[in-house]
Amino acid sequence: MKIFAPKETDPIETRASLDPAAVKKLVGLGAEVVVESGIGVLSDHPDSSYEEAGATVTTDPAGSLGSADIVTRVRKPSSEEVGQLKEGAIHISFLDPFNEKELIGRFASQKATAISLEMVPRTTLAQKMDAISSQANLAGYVSVITAANRLNGIFPMMMTPAGTISPAKVFVVGIGVAGLQAIATAKRLGARVTAFDVRPEALEQAESLGAKALRIDLGETSGTDQGYAKELTPEQLEKQRQAQAKVCAQSDVVITTAKVFGRKPPVLIKKDVVDGMQPGSVIVDLAAETGGNVEGITPGEETVTENGVKLVGLANFEGQVSRHASQVLAANFANMIEHFWDEESNSLKINLDDEIQKGCVITHDGSIVHERFQD
Ligand code: NAD
């Protein structure tokens, strides 16, 4: 069984799908691992470290794509790359399946098995392969470090002979995996944190980290059976925006992380609220890459509004800590392959009756097998 990990082609991507530790684990299973030369150059792993772990390094990605049984990569492939896969190959990556109908069709016509990391179920058993969580954790950390770096002030309270500096006020909107890590990081730096989420249990988690929960009576806001939030009605969203406006105006930093699975993120902070914020305050929007929670934010860019508010819409936040992001992502890949490894055939076994595979296998054997994408 040959596993191939190509170098990422998107210029924004700094992570690698496999690191040397994951290679070692996969080689230990009995797999042959091939990586493209330079795969780890942006995550501090030279080719030699992959070779030491047991991989072969290639400078012919097209040839290796065509001969691999399993391909691991971070970002979705191009249609051309899918066309290079051999029949029956298993391709594991982020796939953005809700927006990539054509690519999914291409996988099916190529008779390749596409596994989408976004669709791994949020269950206890699948936690070790949950790349959405492993990456969101790091993105939450980076969002706070980025805000601290952009703010012309400090986070902790400081008592000096020249007077007392008040702690920074940080408002976190969306208390999922990224939001919880943002709260914990901001607290560690000494900020005073307020947080809001539509899920009541998330407010309790925020409080257990020492944040003040903002409570807004929005009526029915129950989540899905996977623990995800449901989309709010326009009336609920308006109520939320109004209730948040005062907190935003008083905050030095606002971090937004709100997402609704399979849909565009909700716009939670409109221009009038940004206009009401203090000059020098900073908004970091972790949802910017997929549409943004903040009106006027530009994905991949940092801008300053007329009233001096810094809008940070960086993309790939977790990629700023590429070594650790690659470490946990590669572990997710290796755990998934190990979990489904069949010792008898020395290969990854596709079993569409398995609960985890039912959730994340999108195409198999020439068809779209995932029921959410069949139409
Ligand atoms: P996500 O990235 O889909 O969304 C981020 C947060 O935004 C969520 O907390 C969501 O409730 C919130 N949100 C949505 N609309 C909002 C709005 N209008 N205003 C404010 N916040 C809004 O979520 P996630 O971080 O991937 O986590 C989703 C859930 O899954 C969490 O409950 C998490 O604990 C759970 N989870 C479970 C497992 C597991 O059991 N294995 C693993 C990971 C996550």
Spell out the key features of this protein.
8-stranded mixed beta sheet, alpha/beta, 19 strands, 375 residues, single chain, Rossmann fold, 7-stranded mixed beta sheet
Tell me the CATH topology of the largest domain.
Rossmann fold
Please give the domain count.
Answer: 2
What is the number of beta strands? Answer: 19
Kindly report the spatial arrangement of strands forming the biggest sheet: 3-2-1-4-5-6-18-19
Helical content band: 25-40%
Which ions, cofactors or small ligands are bound in this entry? nicotinamide-adenine-dinucleotide
Poorly predicted parts = none
Please state the overall shape, judged from the principal axes of the Cα atoms.
globular
The structure class reads alpha/beta
Return the CATH architecture of the largest domain. Answer: 3-Layer(aba) Sandwich
Strand content: 15-25%
Please work out how many helical segments DSSP would assign: 12
Q: Kindly state the mean pLDDT as a whole number?
A: 95
Write a concise synopsis of the structure shown.
The chain is an alpha/beta fold and 375 residues long. The chain has helices at 20-29, 47-53, 61-67, 79-83, 101-109, 131-150, 177-188, 200-208, 234-250, 271-275, 322-339, 355-360; strands at residues 2-5, 32-36, 56-58, 70-72, 90-93, 113-116, 158-160, 163-165, 169-173, 192-196, 212-213, 253-256, 282-285, 302-304, 310-312, 341-342, 347-348, 361-364, 367-368. It has twelve helices and 19 strands.
